[in-house]
Amino acid sequence: MIQTFVGAQVYLPHEIAETTVTIDGSEIVELGGPVQGMEIDARGKILAPALIDVHGDAFERQVMPRPGVFFPIETAVLETDRQLAANGIATTYHSITLSFEPGLRSVERGRAMMQAIQDLAPRLTVENRIQLRWETFAF
Predict the structure, then answer these.
(1) Strands of the 51-56 sheet, one edge to the other
(2) Does residue 4 contact residue 39 with C-beta atoms inside 8 Å?
């Protein structure tokens, strides 16, 4: 289905311009052309490329902002999601370390993190994926 976004501030390689963006399915087919298909009013919006974070463990700061202080895992996941989206990241791979040691990187906390991401998926803005870093001594 062809759709044209009209009136958005579009982030282009060398400028930010108010222009039209026409898409067909998931493909951009024209920039700056006439309206084709369904017109979408995008005034006041920004259209910009999104990024993929292939290895991120900054979520650990939301889970444990200070040594020995843990926030509820659901709160940490929601806050991490908001920060990622605000920085233009559309997909992230949370690098979760599973360790034999108790605490932030324990197997139990890793399971809780993965479960929270799965449970909260309908509420998340960013596509959240998991990368496991499994320590060899974590049986």
Answers:
(1) 51-56, 89-98, 127-134
(2) yes
